[in-house]
Amino acid sequence: MSAPPKPRPLTAPSVFTANRLRDGRVVWFGAGESWLEDIAAALIVAPAAADATLARARLGEARQEVIGVYAVEVAPAPEGPVPVRIREKLRLAGPSIAAVPDAWRMAS
Amino acid sequence: MNVILAPERPAVPPHARTYRYDAIDREFLDQRIGEFGEQIARRLCGELSEDEFKPLRLMNGIYLQLHAYMYRIAIPYGVLNAAQLRQLAMIARRYDRGFGHFTTRQNIQFNWTRLEDVPEIMRALAAVDMHGIQTSGNCIRNTTTDEYAGADPEEIVDPRIYAEIIRQWSTLHPEFTWLPRKFKIAITGAPEDRVAMRIHDVGLIARRDAAGAIGFEVWAGGGLGRTPLLSARLREFLPEEELLAYLEAVLRVYNAEGERANIYRARIKILVRDQPAEFRRKVEAEFARLPRGRYRLDPAVVAGIARHFAPPPFAAATPVPLPDDPALRVWAARCVRPHRQPGHASVTISLKPIGGIPGDASAAQMEAVADLAERFSFGEIRVTHSQNLVLAHIRQADLPAVHAGLLAAGLATPNPGLVTDIIACPGMDYCALATARSIPVAQMISARAAELDRMHDLGELHLNISGCINACGQHHVGHIGILGVDKRGAESYQVTLGGEAGDQPAIGDLVGPGFAYERITDAIETILRRHLALRRQGERFIDTYRRVGIGPFKEALYGPAA
Amino acid sequence: MALLRDGRLTEDPYLRVPEGAPLPPGPALIDLARVLAGEVAGGRTAPLGVLLPPDAAVDVLAPWLPDLALIVLRLPGSRDGRAFTQARALREHHHFRGELRATGHVLPDHLTMLRRVGVDSIELPATADPVAFLAAARRIDIAYQPSLDGGLPLGLRRLRLETA
Q: Does residue B314 sit within a domain?
């Protein structure tokens, strides 16, 4: 699973994330039970509504669309919700390091 | 309709000493690919649940990570031929983001694979006799060995022969496929331990008795993670023909009695630690009881496997001094080591460029290494457990050309064994289990320490970084170890000192409270500077530490004790 | 419960006898404790089977093996492989000749290996797809190590397994 090692109870507004089954890519739960790559379209729910929304989001697992649904606490921002935790910031933005696929790296 | 063409089978360099698959091995791989391909199809259409599929995909090397599926491909005992390395480069390009990561267990990982592509990738791997079988899951994993096997002047027994025998014996073993937890075996055949034998579930030292017969010293119960433990010796000299029978006995006791409910107590090391005498007794009882004939390792089988690892046709060569080129000599001092064959040498290729990502190689770099291997090393490449590569059989006369080739590919950093030769796991940038990032920390420390090393010549220093308690970076056995944890939502890095993976193995001592991401590089610099201030002539960091203890380093980091 | 045996689905002839209940006249399956208490003795001719828990050492059954027609081994989870060691020990050390059966969280992917360690039959889980189970057993017929099953030697300790 790609859920965090120690899930904690939610205290902030949250979105729901998962990995797409066929290619493993990170997706976010949006309106109409959809799973999208853009977090700006994700459904943000208050902690009280989290359990109910999680159950709906998990239907994506039953439909073989996604795996490993879990909640991610976010802070609002103009460009869209921003995950609070570093791990989920990385999940959203990708690795914090630049891979250098085909360029030669400098010898020391 | 998707037509998947069977990939061509590339020509294998004729003298590369990798185990050569025959028709039976290939048929097995085909069957296995067929089986897993079907399991993937059943998963994608929902016939298999994720709970049912997960152990199956793990057994074939597919992890689900933070951003994508990660495919871990087996490089049996770290040995590759040039055709295989080129195929990995192709896979990196076509199915991934153009690079791969070599691991501390001599495997390679691709971080961005798609489950729907895996059947095609499997066929591409099978075309060069490779796969991801048993690189994950609660089964016997890749048996690792010495990267200088067959080349080291001090070698007593070539461990690759037995690593291959163990690989075959442990492949889809019917009794040991659903163990309490993973099982890692390491084997060495040289006096110097380069495989971190003491931190493996089973460690084997191949040696000869007074009459010259081959046998094994057997150790069991080593491991890191939450509970770092060094292994204990079970047997001083196990005759060659009893190797598999004895491994059966060890695995049977483990399978029956290893902890199943609590994963943190499920490795064999816990059994060995908690009931050492009882464990030994049970293994010996099982060994005495099993029908030796069925499990006997026939010398004819050993000879058959050994033929795959016969010495390549070395050219007669006299020792040749290195040309008087300063850069070449600096490189050679760290990257070239003696060879048992006169006029030859082994070359270590650093995958740790200063400020770079430890253990990563681009597709182009993989191809460059494959080319150099083909031209200068019988087409053979090894992966080391410190995430570097080795060209084992270079003629001394060819060293300048090899160096030039590596330099052009950005692979000539003269730092193996130095502080900037960092061992690091992928950490939270990639791994779903991680609690902190490790790669950027490695990069920052590498850049800072390179400066110090340039000015003061720090000498041999093993620095290991793990991004979580699972310790895939093996930080416990680093001279300096760093463990990244989550401290109230922020990354915090704990430092251990005095660990060692080789012949004087030790688990490092925790130096004190952890350091924030922004402070850890300064902390490491403080430690290095204190070492420089204290060291005596010729002392490495680990020597200084053993002499002065943790006190001076604690003081340097945290101030005088109250 | 449906049994998968010799590549076919059959009915289970054994009656699972609840704790404390008397043995029926026909094939009966009882708990380990009752066997250890000596219920096997007494001139009973109908087949008797025992449920062996995953953490039981098979050696405890040794005195009663000649009187047991069936031993049922359990996979409490699909990743718990203790039944494989139990099965192999019963065959290899104790030369048990009766039926060995696996129950619990058995997957099609266990089948070949269960057979290789001497298991004859599987209790199919209620939700199981028999077709998947039947297909699974034939997938891989090359083995890299000897076990309790037969096989044609292929050199270097490899075997071509006899298909079900």
A: no
